[in-house]
Amino acid sequence: MKYGDYTYIWELKDWPNWQFNTAQLSPLIAEIHHARGYLFGNINHLGFDLQKEAFLEIISEDALKTSQIEGEFLDQDAVRSSVAKRIGLDIGALPNTNRHIDGVVEMILDATESGSMPLTKDKLFEWHQGLFPSNSVLNPIDIGIWRRDAKGPMQVISGAIGKEKIHYQAPPANLIEQEIDKFITWFNQESWLDPLVKAGIAHLWFVTIHPFDDGNGRIARAIGDMALARAEKVNLRFYSVSAQIQKERKTYYELLEKTQKGSMHIDQWLDWFLNCLLRSIQESQVTLQEVISKANFWQKHGGQALNQRQIKIINKLIDGFEGHLTSSKWAAINKCSPDTALRDIQELISLNILRKKDAGGRSTAYELIISH
Asked: What is the distance between the alpha carbons of residues 291 and 297, in angstroms, rounded to a whole number?
């Protein structure tokens, strides 16, 4: 039976017999393994405390970006707070989190920390419940169960009403149980596949089944992370594939659509996924350098009596503050008065931690003094 205007890969006779050229992918796989070995070598030199700090930054970024891919923007400080609490890291005054943010963080950490455990339907339901702790009045969905297609076939659509474009149509609800059974059996069994390739296929396969009303992309990325954790046999993650996918979001969606309307030959998808993974590992070196810079800074200035507002802004500056830091931005970020902001800044200038930027403008801007 044909569903919709296209023949989708799940309708093909050889579904899900994935086809790809292992020899063609081998050089890229070898490069990823080398890059990962180099990264872990640098991590091992950091020491336990800095490793946890790096893990905090990576997981926080992962939670933010896997949500941004779906058009959802979480509060950065609340995400860091949730991760810090979950891994037992003291980062000073912690803002309040909420059940949704905690659910996103919990899923990502669970996928990373339970790589040696089997993937189960119950785990998938648990992740889904964490992503949607309460239902939306405007867009109610089935939570913690497979979709039932009560409103018609599951379709990925864009465009205004009356001008919609259907990018993809998922298998009907009555096929989900058998499709998920095949997927989970494949995911949990030992395989000759390189784990990196398995992660790429797992991501594509799950999001193609699209078993939930919402949250399929986020869970697919978590499943990919789980496959990578199995390969690494460590329960700490020091790179974020989701952060890199978010940077390449347009290509990601275009390639998904092309692959899901194509054949069982998925070389193009795997080539992009593996290159994206490689770029995420390379990018993590920047995060590590920021963690080291922050540690060096606080080693030098840790004895200074600074308030929480000052510590918060300094850490933002070390992490890479967007735009210019002005007293008005200081006041807005810290929710304090302009006088308090100016007083905080003047204290840091007197301690030789901040200085006025040379560039002129209507508002005076400040920058951190970094000594190497």
From this structure: 10
